[in-house]
Design a protein that fits this description.
39% of the residues lie in helices and 17% in strands. The protein is globular, with a radius of gyration of 21 Å. The strands form 4 sheets. Strands 6-9-10-11-12-13-14-15 form an 8-stranded parallel β-barrel, surrounded by 8 helices. It has a 3-stranded antiparallel sheet with strand order 2-3-5, with no helix packed on it. It has 392 residues and is an alpha/beta fold. It has 2 domains: 108 residues, no CATH class; 229 residues, TIM Barrel. Its EC number is 4.1.1.48. It comes from Rhynchospora tenuis.
Length: 392
């Protein structure tokens, strides 16, 4: 994310800043400025990404950046993560304290070469995404993306669509995924027409659609998202992307998204809170994905969360265990009900028994890709998944 603690577009380096200088970096550029989304505090300072090195000292380089930020002083500047950063901890240490094992900004600075090696596929994806997003931002600064948003169509109510479908059918609402490939399964569908697939899903009862936008690992694109939005598809659209930077949320909105995915296993609490705030300003729904109990407990403590996805797939090794949904929900279902949070079951759903299992565990919606997209007729596949026609 364009983070209070890390930003790739650094201009001024301050080596090993003291407590006092860290606080000054964060606060000296705060000023009030109008935005067309809302009136908020605009911040023109930020810090460069930390670079992992093989040095035992694990030195950190921080810097002032040129990107614009909106922060509410009390909630963000005085956040726990900022206090930890002020005390000298790196952003990866701060994330690790929250149970996050995916390291950020670990590519070596040229011309040094060398550096860290990704520990798993998700870490590799995130490191590649950091490079990709930096390149995107250089080609299209956020102010240009904001200009596109001004002319974008209004967003559609993602959560309302899920709730209406559940009330109508009595089974979990379907978020059908438009996905050509995955790192674990390779090409899922050779004859891939995102618009035709989306239309088939909608006609056969999908409440919402998930559009993969990652190109390198899933062969998706933001252009596919835009094509589906402009094709007259009425289902709300989820931008299925590995979001690490605020720019991606703005770009998703400009390309027609109604919702975005935030992965708790990658994003510290302060990032999730700030991204939720931005989503509200843009009219977007945030689906916050968790995999383990610690991630779910973290997310349940964050105000404003409306939609949580429980992934049965471990994104570090891609092993799937459908019982993960039940394990996470069994002692937390009342808290979820009290907060009026809609839970989405993700991954490993292939049969009516699978859907019933997660439904009985407390799930009100399911996000399904592989078991539908691999079938010759995805519409018939939906009926096979639920054991009935959910389009009526």
């Amino acid at each position: 994310m364009e983070s209070l603690l890390a930003n790739p577009s650094a201009k001024l380096s301050i080596s090993n800043p003291s407590f006092t200088s860290r606080r000054a970096i964060l606060t000296e550029s705060l000023h009030f400025a109008p935005r067309y989304f809302s009136n908020s505090i605009r911040m023109t300072s930020g810090l460069s990404p930390l670079r992992c090195t093989n040095s035992p000292e694990d030195k950190e380089i921080s810097s002032v950046a040129s990107a614009m930020y909106e922060y509410q002083t009390d909630e963000f500047i005085n956040a726990k993560e900022v206090r930890e950063w002020e005390s000298g901890k790196s952003i990866n240490q701060i994330a690790a304290n929250q149970g996050i094992t995916i390291r950020r900004s670990c590519r070596p600075a040229p011309p040094a070469g060398g550096g860290m090696v990704p520990r798993n596929i998700l870490e590799q994806i995130i490191w590649d995404k950091e490079v990709e997003v930096t390149q995107f931002k250089q080609r299209m600064p956020r102010k240009n993306v904001e200009h596109l948003i001004k002319d974008a169509s209004p967003t559609r109510d993602f959560i309302r669509a899920l709730k209406d479908s559940y009330l109508r059918t009595g089974v979990p609402a379907l978020i059908a995924e438009v996905k050509k490939a995955s790192p674990s399964r390779g090409i899922l569908r050779e004859n891939f027409d995102p618009v035709e697939i989306a239309r088939t899903y909608e006609q056969n009862g999908a409440a919402c659609l998930s559009i993969l936008t990652d190109t390198k690992y899933f062969q998706g694109s933001f252009e596919n998202l835009e094509k589906v939005r402009k094709a007259g598809i009425k289902c709300p659209l989820l931008c299925k992307e590995f979001i690490i930077d605020l720019w991606q949320i703005y770009y998703a909105r400009a390309k027609g998204a109604d919702a975005v995915l935030l992965i708790a296993g990658v994003l510290p609490d302060i990032d999730i809170k700030y991204m939720l705030k931005t989503c509200r300003e843009l009219g977007l729904t945030a689906l916050i994905e968790v995999y383990n109990e610690r991630e779910l407990d973290r997310v349940l403590k964050i105000n404003g969360v409306q939609l949580i996805g429980i992934n049965n797939r471990n994104l570090e090794n891609f092993v799937v265990d459908i019982s993960n949904t039940q394990k996470l929900l069994e002692n937390r279902i009342q808290v979820i009900k009290d907060k009026d949070i809609t839970v989405v079951g993700e991954s490993g759903l292939f049969t009516p028994d699978d859907v019933k299992f997660v439904h009985d565990s407390g799930v009100k919606a399911v996000l399904v890709g592989e078991s539908l997209i691999k079938q010759e007729d995805p519409g018939l596949a939906i009926r096979g998944l639920f054991g009935k026609d959910i389009s009526k």
